[in-house]
């Protein structure tokens, strides 16, 4: 995190976000703030509400109540904010199987209003940064899961967003690619991008995040700083929260 | 160009690219154009064989009535099957692939997503119509074409294809699976075509049921009669279908 990140205006503010899914409350009265250069790790067991929260932040899902502010402006009133300021890598990196890697980047750029030389330059830069040159002409439908993740990440970063939302980005990546991903997240944060990283891996959080939020049954149970040496403490906090009210999990542990 | 229109065209470009990369679109184009070319050859043969008889009738049917318009009428019949297959995946396929949220996350309103996808499909269908139309047009210098009648028939076909595309996009928006979308679009368009058959069999011509039927409006245009009522009927159906599709897609963001 940059030294004065917390004192800068919030890039993202969630105010009392609530959302019901499949007849139950997936997220309830969630409040969060994220500043430029911060990397927030979002932890929680399956069904805790992480992906629902990220989908709402990305604009793919509407909250039932509450406000989402990007740079202090209501995201629902100004949908173009999402277009310009937000990059999202959804879980399992959904792609259009019929498009090549290059065409994917072009499509994402055009959807976000980038065209011509600006688009070519942005595509060139991100292809180089994520080492996608050998895959440029390959159809997305034939990529391995790791390659899909990299392409999804490239699409999320193409327009240099102020807020990067990553839903389990390390899925299916090999250890070398995980290390490269961590370096990339740190690099983005150093450049002033606010990053939210949803993951199941506690080690992922302690390695790259400077803050951690733990969701359980749709509510925020913990929000605090975290560092590389905090793995044991984070593990304790996580399991305390995860096992509260879940007897089966407690029994299994 | 405003950002909303830029988004619409970006969706249209994306859908067009996906469309031309799918083997189904090529297969449909190749099979239907081969079928139409074969029928065109047969109709030409019959037209040439009847030349002597027709010479005795100075005001009798010509090349436009016996070849060009019947060819377009065959295209209309094929469209009932082709359009649902072409439109079935536009939204239902995106929903199944999990790529629909990517379009929402780009800040595009549902109306722009629907319109962009619709424009791409209509573009493909107009190209299909032009390739079919090219068959009689290459013989235009050898025969006497009734340009007015051909223009009216082409307008009718273009309106029909635009309407079927809008219905197909709407069905794809409501369906959870592309196959269901295709079946729904086929049933809906066939119902719309034949809604007045019962009334006609009972000897009732005219009235509201006849006005509802697509056949009433297309057949008038194929005969060379362009009326504002027919054009408005097609446009109303396009607007209604796209509006329903937009509302359903917007609800996806609220519902899922």
What does this structure look like?
The complex is a heterodimer of chains A (253) and B (256). Chain A has nine helices and ten strands. By secondary structure, chain A is of the alpha/beta class. In chain A, the strands form two sheets. Chain A has a six-stranded mixed β-sheet, with helices on both faces. Chain A has a four-stranded antiparallel β-sheet with strand order 2-1-4-5. Chain B is an all-alpha fold and 256 residues long. Chain B is built from 13 helices and no strands. In chain B, helix 8 (147-174) packs across helix 9 (178-194). Chain B is globular. At the A-B interface, helix 2 and helix 3 of A face helix 1 and helix 6 of B.
Short recap of the structure:
The complex is a heterodimer of chains A (253) and B (256). Chain A is α/β, with parallel strands linked by helices and 253 residues long. Chain A contains nine helices and ten strands.
- Shape descriptor of chain A reads globular
N→C terminal distance of chain B: 32 Å
- Mean pLDDT reading of chain B: 91
Distance between the termini of chain A: 34 Å
Number of strands of chain B: 0
Subunit organisation of the chains: heterodimer
Q: Rounded to an integer, what's the Rg of chain A over CA atoms?
A: 18 Å
Helix content of chain A: 25-40%
Largest sheet of chain A: 6 strands, mixed
Biggest sheet statistics of chain B: none
Number of strands of chain A: 10
**What spatial order of strands do you see in the largest sheet of chain A?**
6-7-8-3-9-10
Characteristics of this structure?
heterodimer; A: 253 residues; alpha/beta; 9 helices; 25% strand; B: 256 residues; mainly alpha
What are the SSEs and their pairings?
The complex is a heterodimer of chains A (253) and B (256).
Chain A: E1 10-21, E2 24-35, E3 39-43, H1 50-58, E4 65-70, E5 73-74, H2 80-85, E6 86-89, H3 101-111, H4 116-129, H5 145-157, E7 163-167, H6 175-190, E8 194-198, H7 202-208, E9 211-216, E10 219-225, H8 231-243, H9 247-252
Chain B: H1 3-21, H2 23-49, H3 51-55, H4 63-87, H5 92-97, H6 100-105, H7 110-137, H8 147-174, H9 178-194, H10 197-201, H11 208-212, H12 214-222, H13 228-255
Helix pairs in contact in B: 1-7, 2-4, 2-7, 4-7, 4-8, 4-9, 7-8, 7-13, 8-9, 8-12, 8-13, 12-13
């Amino acid at each position: 995190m940059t030294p004065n990140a917390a004192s800068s205006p919030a890039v993202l503010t969630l105010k009392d976000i609530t959302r019901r899914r499949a007849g139950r409350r997936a997220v309830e009265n969630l409040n969060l703030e994220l500043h430029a250069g911060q990397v927030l790790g979002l932890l929680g067991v399956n069904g805790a509400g992480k992906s629902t929260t990220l989908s709402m932040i990305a604009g793919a899902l509407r909250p039932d109540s509450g406000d989402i502010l990007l740079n202090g402006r209501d995201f629902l009133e100004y949908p173009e904010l999402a277009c310009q300021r937000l990059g999202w890598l959804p879980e399992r990196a959904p792609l259009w199987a019929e498009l090549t890697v290059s065409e994917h980047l072009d499509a994402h750029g055009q959807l976000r209003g980038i065209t011509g030389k600006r688009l070519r330059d942005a595509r060139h830069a991100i292809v180089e940064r994520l080492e996608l040159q050998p895959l440029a002409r390959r159809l997305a439908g034939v990529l391995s899961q790791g390659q899909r993740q990299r392409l999804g990440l490239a699409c999320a970063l193409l327009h240099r967003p102020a807020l990067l939302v990553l839903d389990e980005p390390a899925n299916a990546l090999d250890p070398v690619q995980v290390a490269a991903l961590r370096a990339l997240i740190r690099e983005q944060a150093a450049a002033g991008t606010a990053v939210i990283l949803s993951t199941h891996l506690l080690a992922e959080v302690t390695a790259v995040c400077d803050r951690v939020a733990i969701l359980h049954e749709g509510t925020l149970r913990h929000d605090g700083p975290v560092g590389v040496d905090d793995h044991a403490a984070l593990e304790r906090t996580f399991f305390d929260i995860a096992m509260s009210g879940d007897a089966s999990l407690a029994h299994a542990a | 160009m405003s950002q909303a229109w830029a988004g619409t065209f970006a969706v249209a470009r994306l859908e067009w690219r996906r469309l031309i990369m799918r083997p189904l679109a090529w297969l449909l184009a190749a099979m239907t154009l081969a079928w139409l070319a074969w029928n065109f050859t047969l109709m030409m043969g019959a037209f040439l064989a009847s030349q002597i008889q027709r010479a005795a009738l100075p005001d009798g049917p010509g090349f436009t009535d016996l070849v060009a318009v019947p060819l377009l009428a065959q295209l209309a019949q094929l469209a009932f099957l082709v359009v649902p297959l072409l439109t079935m995946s536009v939204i239902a396929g995106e929903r199944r692939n999990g790529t629909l949220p990517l379009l929402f996350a780009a800040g595009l309103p549902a109306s722009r997503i629907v319109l962009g996808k619709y424009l791409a499909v209509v573009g493909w269908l107009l190209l299909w119509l032009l390739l079919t139309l090219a068959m009689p047009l290459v013989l235009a210098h050898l025969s006497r074409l009734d340009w007015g009648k051909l223009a009216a028939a082409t307008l009718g076909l273009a309106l029909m294809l635009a309407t079927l595309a809008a219905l197909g996009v709407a069905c794809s928006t409501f369906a959870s699976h592309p196959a269901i979308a295709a079946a729904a679009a086929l049933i809906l368009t066939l119902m719309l075509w034949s809604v007045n058959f019962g009334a006609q069999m009972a000897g009732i011509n005219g009235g509201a049921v006849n006005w509802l039927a697509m056949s009433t409006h297309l057949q008038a245009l194929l005969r060379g009669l362009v009326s504002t009522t027919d054009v408005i009927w097609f446009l109303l159906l396009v607007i209604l279908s796209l509006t329903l599709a937009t509302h359903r897609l917007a609800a996806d963001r609220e519902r899922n």
